[in-house]
Specification:
The relative contact order is 0.11. The protein is rod-shaped, with a radius of gyration of 47 Å. Helix 1 packs antiparallel against helix 9. It is built from 9 helices and 6 strands; from the N terminus they run ααααβαααβββββαα. The chain is α+β, with helices and mostly antiparallel strands and about 325 residues long. A 6-stranded mixed beta sheet has the order 2-1-6-5-4-3. Strand 3 and strand 4 form a beta hairpin.
């Protein structure tokens, strides 16, 4: 009788141990599965990263070179016989002030370059539209200016004054009567502030007026089919240097535009942020989802434990 009772108890203990080990394994399996699932769900979304070139790989395009190894020239300007305006004026020995202005403003480099370019690009049938015409006030003409006038000009106004004495084509002394007033100089095309009108009389007498100065061509310093330099008895001062400066134009303001200057950028930036975050899950939704998952797994585990306890009690 006692032997049967002991064997029955021993059998019951084995069953309990087997059931307890099964429940423990089930709990371990559920815990591992839950941890991997929640970690996968709650991992942050990583933005795509731009690929970078491997170290040592040069992505800068190479400069094309010729077979000899030297850089390939883009354009080659053919060599032509150059005409130096400064040398021409220096030989005349009465244009020291004009020479100094041409050098200090560096406008002489532009004029010499225009001569070379126009000479190389002009065809034989269209040579009348090439070259330059320069009205050159001598030193006595500059002495007639108001004292301190030149020193009161800014560098930009000095360049404008010299460009007002320059035409972008070659005009012979006999062709001034064919021009249409006002003639356009290199200073600009403002018909009021940069007007230059030409009148001729007697075939060779040419007068120039700017609206502020009346001058006369007193001689020809140099002339060929590319360049003409005419001496004038007064400095051609344009009205633009004497009239009050133009008021800057104000930007138009729209009637409905009551927003501040920074509102547009702010709204656009906030819109971009909304677009970027539109496809990402919100923190509230992810938190609610994780809580529901936790509750579900907790209820399942509790249910399994209760079932195990009932089985043990029944045994």
């Amino acid at each position: 009788m006692s032997y049967t009772l002991i064997s029955s108890q021993h059998s019951t203990m084995k069953k309990q141990q087997f059931l307890f080990s099964s429940i423990l394994q089930l709990l371990i399996t559920i815990t591992l599965f839950y941890s991997t699932t929640t970690s996968a769900q709650l991992s942050p979304v990583q933005p795509p990263q731009a690929s970078t070139p491997a170290p040592g790989f040069n992505t800068v395009p190479l400069v094309p070179v010729s077979p000899s190894g030297a850089p390939t020239p883009i354009d080659i300007i053919p060599k032509t016989s150059s005409i130096d305006i400064i040398l021409i004026l220096q030989k005349a020995k009465r244009f020291s002030v004009l020479i100094r202005l041409l050098k200090t403003t560096q406008l002489i480099n532009q004029l010499n370059s225009q001569l070379v370019t126009s000479s190389s690009s002009a065809s034989a049938s269209d040579s009348s539209n090439a070259g330059l015409t320069l009205f050159a006030p001598d030193d006595s003409a500059f002495s007639k200016l108001k004292p301190g006038f030149l020193n009161s000009l800014s560098d930009r106004h000095k360049v404008e004054l010299l460009q007002f004495h320059t035409l972008s084509s070659f005009i012979s002394i006999s062709n001034f009567d064919t021009l249409t007033n006002p003639i356009q100089t290199q200073a600009g095309d403002d018909a009021k502030r940069l007007q230059l009108n030409v009148t001729t009389s007697g075939g060779s007498r040419v007068s120039l007026t700017t609206g502020a100065v009346n001058a006369t061509i007193t001689g020809t310093v140099y002339a060929d089919n590319k360049l003409a330099i005419y001496q004038v008895d007064k400095v051609l001062v344009p009205l633009d240097l004497l009239l009050p400066a133009k008021a800057p134009a104000h930007a138009p303001v729209s009637k409905g535009g009551s927003s501040k200057p920074g509102d547009g950028s702010k709204s656009s930036s906030s819109k971009d942020d909304d677009d970027e975050n539109k496809d990402l899950p919100s923190e509230n939704s992810s938190g609610a989802g994780s809580c529901s998952v936790k509750r579900m797994w907790l209820a399942f585990v509790v249910g399994v434990v209760l079932l195990g306890c009932e089985a043990m009690i029944s045994i």
